[in-house]
Amino acid sequence: MNFFSRLFGKRGEADSKVRLLGKLAFLEVDVHNHLLPGIDDGSKSVDESLELIKGLNSLGFSKFICTPHIMDGVHPNTKSTIQTAYQALKGALAEQNSKVEIFPAAEHMIDDGIVPLIERDNLCVMPGGYVLIEMSYLSESKALFQTIKDIQKLGYKPVLAHPERYNYYHYNFNMYHQIRDAGCLMQLNLLSISRYYGVEVKSAALTLLKSGMYDFVGTDLHHDRHLAALQEVVAKYPVRDMLKSCNILNPTLLDHIKHDSSKALG
After folding, report:
1. Alpha carbons 138 and 183: distance in angstroms, whole number
2. Does residue 115 lie within any of the structural domains?
3. Where are the membrane-spanning stretches (predicted)?
């Protein structure tokens, strides 16, 4: 029995799907996902990307800032590889006459590989001059604050992806304040408000929400299992109300997307 049948009963399955339509439209833009095909641990093909986009679109997202990993030795993406995948997906969307808009950027791991990208001003920047960064889940990067400063020196605004998922901060909440005081923004993974990543991650996410510390929201969608879990979250949680404690900037990116699309990864 699928999720909707369990939650609502067979008779209400169709109705329940209708109830989910557009529930996340107030966010306008998904700022973090792995929809570009075949270049990291996200979508494996253009067809898969189209299906995932279809599912997210039904929830209300119409614009996507695509952020594949740039991770030294694991996902060694460059502007060129990202641009190639972006053009393939963009072309497929055009063939479908889709009104969905995508924009290429990246999720930069703070590792040895990010240093030359900063030195050459070769980061994959999101619309509005934001740069998405992440750390290992296993250990804190000692270069975090230096990386924040270096990105700011280039005139960009660093955004730390899913801070709630860094377990080593769960018992040192002051670190989140230090990161924000350094001028780094924070992005929530929507799945984190459930127990998808575990109880401790959910607890951290809710605490950060209540403290008004998030600036952006993303799906961090990789595959159809994430999509199904996201649908459950939307069905179970009052997402819009939960985000009211934060000044969420996703909708402010709309004008930037229009302005920056012509120079994407240029």
Report:
1. 24
2. yes
3. none
